[in-house]
């Protein structure tokens, strides 16, 4: 489904409103609306080479090497052969071009896969199968069950009664419960009659393309009438049609103009902070190179004036060549010779290291999720080291932190709690997979996948405890769940929210089976007996009431009101006789909330017949009132929902993914701040925040920002800041920071005493993200340990990430699993996709992907930290060895008359970076680790130096340059001094240029190799082979190059005949090599020893502990589960919107033909449901899909399972 996360294209002219006519392509084409085709690729066959080369030469280094190549073909200034530059440059350009081509081919394939999908389009009065990309605005298309919605459509008609359709919007908003859309009656009458649909010529006037997922305004003009259009009549691209045989829709927006695409965020080229720093350093190095060349050119000028005239006999000047011109040529000659300060092999090596570290992520079995057969995948190879520097993690909630599976875990009935398991001594046992489950075989209609472990509750049901029976009767009656029974005894539930599904399933297993409903009755099976309750009223849930009630007449004729809701709301409406039971239940609720469970209180009352009749009359009047209908109904609800009798409370677990709390705890210890950005309602998100240890009871305060105006939000943010830091300055404190030559303001971190949390809803966030208030919001949020943003749109997610990127000098990571997370994933420095239940969109737009949130800690604390450490060590060492190599040329210039003669053999210059020092440094960069993964997890603080850029920075670079300067002085002057007045054993002279060049380059190679050995903490057989093999290679190549045979073959290319065998057989040469090596590494050893002794880093301390352990550390102690209580109430989420109550009780109610059914308790076997529980108790999945299935085509039920019932009484 790669179409969900692609770049959004803007029209050249801004559209103010959209006009279109159905079935009139000619008319619609005049407006030049975008077609439904998607294009994400960058190149085609003809543009690839010029465009790619143009992009590559925008890199400063590549342009610099091209410039060097041009200089090297000028004979007057070139002292090096052209192949020393052209071979590595072509190699780098080819490797990068191949990589870019592969990426773009994959994009082409992805585009083609989506664009070539088929859909049925009404053309020339016939339904034709057309490709998605050929669909145009104004076309009428037919969708079938489980198909993706092709474009943004106006729903015209459907196969379901009342022209309803059911859609799953997980790709848009992360919600997996089904949503209902309904066509206008005037278009619904068209049905599936092709002739009528072909004659339909309605004109739509609507809003232009925008990113608002929750709003749509427009009108349909048809047959001389105008009809209003809203969001309830629109099907958005990214939705999936469910439980609807077919529907017809009119295309309003196509391709890049669809609301999903408008929300997708902009694709940006992501570069690591090390890349950005490297650009700055490369510019500095070029400046430094220019300075060195100017100094040497000036030296040449003065040397030519003073000494050069004496050499004209041997080196006659060309006519007109003055000292100044000689200096000019010398400048360019030294630009070529000293270019090794930035060798092109640096960029080749960096790409190889990144590729290698990406493979480690792909191959990591500990990040492989066997249940889904999903390995971790590094989808980009350029950002690995950035994983070791993350400061802010932005996470989605549903499907990322949670599995979106609700499980019935515990309950409190009449002052007694159920759900815990005890041993024979009365000690509470921890429930695991191996804990014995309750046997529900007494109930043939039970769901076999429901698991409960406390046998006491089943015994209470079997003993016909009246309070327990009343408790489960309430759960079986008070809900808006729909049931379908395709075969007798085979029940499928479709719930508006997963919480309700879990509660109804629990009641079902304990013997109170919800079987079916009509607009005026609910049928349940109570302990094997079929009973039908007359449904008189549903007092539906909404976000203000936070409760739901039903009024029913029992088969015995008694009137009862059953109510369930948030405990704080229910407690306010209880009869005073319940005070003692309330106190006991409160203790249980505190305990449930302390375990992060979602609590719900249950109550009931019996009603007087006469009072109810009078109330019913007033209810009818209020429900038909034209003014303040909602207020009048609320008043009536308040009146009847009082003096309730408490039954007990339920505790539902919104199942977190495995290891989420531990992961968040580990990341917090690594000083990583976690912000949750979710489309869920506030209570749900807050509750999950507590479950996963993001918000904790121990926090000083959790601030709730929910203002409905600019001033309210501003005041709430200021109040929060003042609470955290009473003496906080009014204005934000900024630090000047320059990145890539651009001056930006960086907000300083503020230290506060204590830990705080912040929860802000989407409405308030819209104000907080305004330019005038964004700094106020950011400053307040950054002072908090955890931030939760609720009800946010996909675009707001991206805006929050961009805000932190803009004003904080920190690396950000966004992680999500749905299309609603794509813009956030693209906006962050690193995007991580979780391949979960909400499709693959997030994965396709991400830089890294895996199946479970818990793998994030391994990605960051192990792979990320190692990658950053390896890259930093590589860069420090690479600059050291190349600066040392180059600075020797600089010192030699003062002894060769500034003639641009090289101090080394030309072959050594060519092979130094490509052969002699390439593999050892690559070995270190691919295998280095200061401590292993176990120690990395035990000490998450090891991650902090990466956030602070301690391993490689401008300071570290200049230290490296100073070290190189010292080493080059030793490497030049020690050999120079030892050879100046030295003779061989046989009395012959060895102080010639070629012998000196050989000695200097051998000393250099030994010095940098020994330095590499000190840099490495982790030696492997491969490393050792690379180090020793490179030294052996040097001697083998040197003796071969300096042999008589090579000289005789090509005298001009191999002039150092016999130098190796004549010099390297002298003891004084080896003593010189030994002396220079010792002098090069001695200061380094001294400095490191003093540093470890006086101010050791966290790495030094942990490595010392590792050495002391001398083995793998013992496994971490198993943490015992601490029982804690909480006065905080878990907000219970019925659903994200107004309930189905009105539809359930309306005369338009839907039902499939009834099946003849017995009580069901005569069956021998159990039955199955349409949802898959996982874990230790029942799990309810809102879509009814197996939780880890890859194919989302499992049938689900919903309201369409019912046909219209006509009843004279309604």
TrEMBL record:
Q: Which chain regions cross the lipid bilayer?
A: 80-98, 280-303, 323-348, 874-895, 907-927, 956-976, 996-1014, 1026-1049, 1069-1091
Residues annotated as catalytic: 396
**What EC class is this?**
translocase
The cellular location(s) given in this protein's UniProt record come to: Endomembrane system; Membrane
Positions contributing to ATP binding? 396-398, 500, 541, 564, 598, 678-680, 791, 797, 820-821
* GO CC field: plasma membrane; trans-Golgi network
Bilayer topology reads: Multi-pass membrane protein
Instruction: Answer whether the UniProt record assigns the keyword Ribonucleoprotein to this protein.
Output: no
One GO process term, biological-process aspect: Golgi organization
**What Enzyme Commission number(s) does the record list for this chain?**
7.6.2.1
Q: Which reaction does it catalyse?
A: ATP + H2O + phospholipidSide 1 = ADP + phosphate + phospholipidSide 2
Print the keywords alphabetically. Answer: ATP-binding, Magnesium, Membrane, Metal-binding, Nucleotide-binding, Translocase, Transmembrane, Transmembrane helix, Transport
Q: What is its main location?
A: membrane
Q: What spans are recorded as compositionally biased (Polar residues)?
A: 1160-1171
CDD domains recorded? P-type_ATPase_APLT_Dnf-like
Per its UniProt record, the required cofactor names are: Mg(2+)
Here the segments flagged for biased composition (Basic residues) are 1118-1127
Chain ranges of the P-type ATPase N-terminal domain: 21-86
Q: Where does Mg(2+) bind?
A: 396, 398, 817, 821
Pinpoint the P-type ATPase C-terminal domain residues. Answer: 843-1096
Region named Disordered: 1109-1128, 1160-1191
Q: What GO molecular function annotations does the UniProt record carry, in alphabetical order?
A: ATP binding; ATP hydrolysis activity; flippase activity; magnesium ion binding; phospholipid transporter activity
- Membership in a protein family: Belongs to the cation transport ATPase (P-type) (TC 3.A.3) family. Type IV subfamily.
Its recorded name reads Phospholipid-transporting ATPase
Q: Which organism is it from?
A: Amphiprion percula
């Amino acid at each position: 489904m790669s179409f969900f996360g692609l770049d959004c294209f803007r029209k050249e002219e801004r559209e103010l409103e959209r006009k279109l006519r159905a079935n009139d392509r000619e008319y619609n084409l005049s407006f030049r609306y975008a077609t439904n085709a998607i294009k994400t690729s960058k190149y085609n066959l003809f543009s690839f080479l010029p465009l790619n080369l143009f992009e590559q030469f925008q890199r400063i280094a590549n342009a610099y090497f091209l410039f060097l190549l041009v200089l090297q073909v000028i004979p007057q200034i070139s002292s090096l052969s052209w192949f020393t530059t052209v071979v590595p440059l072509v190699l780098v350009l080819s490797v990068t071009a191949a990589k870019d081509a592969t990426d773009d081919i994959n994009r082409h394939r992805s585009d083609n896969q989506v664009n070539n999908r088929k859909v049925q389009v009404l053309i020339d009065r016939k339904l034709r199968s057309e490709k998605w990309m050929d669909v145009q605005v104004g076309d009428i298309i037919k969708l079938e069950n489980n198909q993706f919605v092709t474009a943004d459509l106006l729903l015209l008609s459907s196969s379901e009664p009342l022209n309803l359709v059911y859609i799953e919007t997980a790709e848009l908003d992360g919600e997996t419960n089904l949503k209902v859309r309904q066509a206008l009656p005037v278009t619904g009458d068209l049905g599936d009659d092709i002739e009528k649909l072909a004659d339909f010529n309605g004109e739509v006037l609507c809003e232009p393309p925008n990113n608002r997922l929750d709003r749509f305004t427009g009108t349909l003009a048809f047959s001389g009438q105008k009809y209003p259009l809203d969001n309830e009549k629109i099907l958005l691209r990214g939705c999936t049609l469910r439980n609807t045989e077919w529907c017809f829709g009119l295309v309003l927006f196509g391709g890049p103009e669809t609301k999903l695409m408008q929300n997708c965020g902009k694709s940006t080229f992501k570069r690591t902070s090390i890349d950005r720093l490297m650009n700055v350093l490369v510019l500095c190095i070029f400046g430094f190179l220019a300075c060195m060349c100017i100094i040497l050119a000036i030296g040449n000028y003065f040397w030519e004036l003073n000494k050069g005239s004496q050499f004209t006999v041997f080196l006659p000047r060309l006519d007109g060549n003055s000292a100044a011109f000689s200096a000019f040529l010398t400048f360019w000659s030294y630009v070529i010779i000293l270019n090794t300060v930035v060798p092109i092999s640096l960029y080749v090596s960096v790409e190889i290291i990144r590729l290698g570290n990406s493979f480690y992520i792909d191959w990591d079995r500990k990040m492989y999720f066997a249940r889904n057969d999903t390995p971790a995948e590094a989808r980009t190879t350029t950002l690995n080291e950035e994983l070791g520097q993350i400061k802010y993690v932005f996470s989605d909630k549903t499907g990322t932190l949670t599995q979106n599976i609700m499980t019935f875990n515990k309950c409190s009935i009449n002052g007694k709690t159920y759900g815990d398991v005890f041993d024979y001594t009365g000690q509470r046992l921890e429930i695991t997979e191996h804990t014995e489950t309750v046997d529900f075989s007494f109930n043939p209609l039970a769901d076999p996948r429901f698991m409960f472990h406390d046998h006491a509750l089943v015994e209470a049901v079997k003993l016909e405890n009246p309070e327990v029976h009343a408790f489960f009767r309430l759960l079986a009656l008070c809900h808006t769940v729909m049931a379908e029974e395709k075969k007798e005894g085979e029940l499928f539930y479709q719930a508006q929210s997963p919480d309700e599904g879990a509660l109804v399933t629990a009641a079902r297993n304990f013997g109170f089976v919800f079987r079916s409903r009509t607009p005026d009755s609910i049928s349940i099976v109570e302990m094997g007996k079929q009973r039908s309750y007359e449904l008189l009223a549903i007092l539906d849930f909404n976000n203000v009431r936070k409760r739901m009630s039903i009024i029913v007449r029992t088969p015995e004729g008694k009137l009862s009101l059953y109510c369930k809701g948030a405990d704080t709301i229910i407690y306010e409406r209880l009869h005073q006789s319940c005070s003692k039971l309330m106190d006991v239940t409160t203790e249980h609720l505190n305990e449930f909330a302390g375990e992060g469970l979602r609590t719900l209180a249950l109550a009931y009352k019996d009603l007087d017949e006469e009072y109810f009749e009078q109330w019913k009359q007033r209810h009818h009047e209020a429900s038909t009132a034209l003014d303040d209908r909602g207020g009048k109904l609320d008043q009536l609800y308040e009146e009847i929902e009082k003096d309730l009798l408490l039954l007990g409370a339920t505790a539902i677990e919104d199942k977190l993914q495995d290891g989420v709390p531990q992961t968040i705890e580990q990341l917090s210890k690594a000083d990583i701040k976690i912000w949750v950005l979710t489309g869920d309602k506030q209570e749900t998100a807050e509750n999950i925040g507590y479950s996963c240890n993001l918000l904790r009871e121990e926090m000083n305060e959790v601030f709730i920002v929910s203002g409905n105006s600019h001033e309210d939000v501003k005041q709430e943010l200021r109040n929060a800041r003042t609470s955290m830091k009473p003496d906080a300055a009014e204005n934000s404190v900024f630090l000047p920071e320059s990145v890539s030559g651009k001056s930006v303001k960086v907000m300083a971190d503020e230290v506060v005493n204590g830990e705080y949390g912040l929860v802000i809803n989407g409405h308030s966030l819209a104000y907080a993200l305004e330019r005038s208030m964004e700094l106020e919001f950011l400053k307040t949020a950054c002072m908090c340990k955890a931030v939760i943003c609720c009800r946010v749109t996909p675009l707001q997610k991206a805006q929050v990430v961009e805000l932190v990127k803009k004003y904080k000098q920190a690396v950000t990571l966004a992680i999500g699993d749905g299309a609603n997370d794509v813009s956030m994933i693209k906006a962050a420095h690193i995007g991580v996709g979780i391949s979960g239940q909400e499709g693959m969109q997030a994965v396709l737009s991400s830089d890294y992907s895996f199946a479970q949130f818990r793998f994030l800690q391994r990605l960051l604390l192990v792979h990320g930290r190692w990658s950053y450490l390896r890259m930093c060590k590589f860069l420090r060492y690479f600059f050291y060895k190349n600066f040392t190599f180059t600075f020797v040329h600089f010192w030699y210039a003062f002894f060769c008359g500034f003639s641009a003669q090289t101090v080394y053999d030309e072959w050594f210059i060519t092979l130094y970076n490509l052969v002699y020092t390439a593999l050892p440094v690559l070995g270190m960069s691919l295998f280095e680790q200061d401590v292993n993964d176990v120690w990395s997890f035990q000490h998450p603080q090891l991650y902090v130096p990466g956030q602070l850029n301690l391993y490689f920075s401008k300071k570290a670079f200049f230290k490296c340059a100073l070290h190189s300067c010292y080493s080059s002085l030793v490497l030049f002057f020690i050999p120079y001094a030892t050879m100046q007045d030295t003779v061989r054993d046989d009395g012959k002279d060895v102080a010639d240029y070629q012998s000196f060049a050989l000695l200097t380059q051998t000393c250099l190679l030994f010095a940098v190799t020994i330095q590499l050995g000190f840099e490495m903490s982790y030696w492997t057989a491969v490393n050792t082979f690379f180090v020793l093999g490179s030294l052996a290679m040097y001697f083998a190549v040197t003796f071969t190059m300096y042999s008589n045979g090579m000289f005789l073959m090509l005298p001009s290319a191999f002039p150092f005949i016999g130098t190796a065998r004549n010099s390297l057989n002298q003891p004084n040469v080896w003593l010189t090599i030994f002396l220079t090596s010792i002098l090069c590494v001695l200061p380094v050893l001294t400095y490191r020893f003093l540093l470890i002794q006086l101010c050791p880093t966290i790495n030094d301390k942990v490595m010392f502990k590792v050495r002391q352990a001398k083995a793998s550390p013992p496994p971490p102690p198993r943490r015992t589960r601490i029982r804690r209580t909480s006065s905080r109430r878990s907000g219970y989420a019925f659903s994200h919107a107004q309930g189905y109550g009105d539809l359930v009780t309306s005369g338009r109610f839907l039902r499939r033909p009834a099946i003849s059914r017995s009580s069901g308790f005569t069956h021998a076997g159990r039955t199955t449901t349409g949802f898959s529980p996982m874990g230790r108790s029942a799990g309810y999945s809102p879509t009814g899909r197996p939780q880890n299935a890859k194919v989302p085509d499992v049938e689900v039920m919903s309201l369409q399972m019912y046909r219209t019932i006509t009843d004279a009484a309604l």
